Amino acid sequence: MPLIGVTRTMNREIFRNDESGAVAAFMAILLPVMMAIMALVIDSGTLYIRHAEIHFLAQQSANSGLLAFGKILEQKAAQSKASLCIVVPPASPPPICDSDNQFDFLSNNDIYQLVNSSTNQNNIKNNASQFAQTYDPQAKIKNTDVESFLGESFLLGNRKLNLRVTIEEDVDRFFSTLLPGDSLIKIEAVSTLTLE
After folding, report:
1. Domain-by-domain residue ranges, the chain?
2. How confident is the model at residue 7 (pLDDT cuts 50, 70, 90)?
3. Which of 45, 135, 191, 192 falls between 20 and 30 A from 30, CA-CA?
4. How far apart are alpha carbons 19 and 6 in whole angstroms?
5. For residues 72 and 1, which has the higher predicted lDDT (pLDDT)?
């Protein structure tokens, strides 16, 4: 009988030694999988952060371009007011000259001509593009990545200018070769100026 007890004790020790090797084998298999998941999470996180950065840049670029066009409108309104309201006495200026709203001195035709001027469209595009390039935290946006379109709408007496800015960027991704997917970020932002 004592022989059976010795065999059981030896078997237990053999199994104990085998269990410690199983943990090493399990870790050898699990470690690359965990590293791949971690890399995928980091890749997705950087894509999400870049998307947010480009969204902010597109919106602020639209605002910047519209402000630049607002200055052009102010100059034209000042010219129109000067030509309309400066009169030689004894003549009196028309009642519209009492208005504090500078846009009262711009006709829809004036605005239409300013909006459709290729010089103004190029200035607005350059202004929006320059803003995006200047304030891009990663300094990856190029002039060709930014598009802008200025349009007007005069419906039911509401005079509005809309500047649409689109920024496209092909983002570098770690898993782009392993996991096919769209790494192109395209963000469109619209800024509106109401002329009242």
Report:
1. 2-194
2. low
3. 45
4. 20
5. 72
In angstroms, the CA 62 to CA 162 distance is: 9
Pairing of strands 158-170, 184-194: antiparallel
For residue 127, give both structure tokens. 């202004």
Q: pTM for this structure?
A: 0.73
At what angle are helices 2-85 and 118-135 packed, to 10 degrees? 150
Q: Span 68-90, mean pLDDT? A: 86
Confidence of residue 172 (pLDDT cuts 50, 70, 90): confident
What does the block give as tokens for 175? 């898993």
Query: Among candidates 3, 2, 195, 35, which has minimal Cα distance to 99?
Result: 195
Identify the pLDDT of residue 159. Answer: 78
Q: If you search the block for the tokens 């379109």, which residue do you land on? A: 149
Per-residue tokens: 142: 């190029």
Q: Given pLDDT bands bounded at 50, 70 and 90, which one contains residue 60?
A: very high
Q: What sign has the CA pseudo-torsion 119, 113, 110, 193?
A: negative
Q: At which residue do the structure tokens 């840049």 appear?
A: 57
CA 133 to chain centre: 12
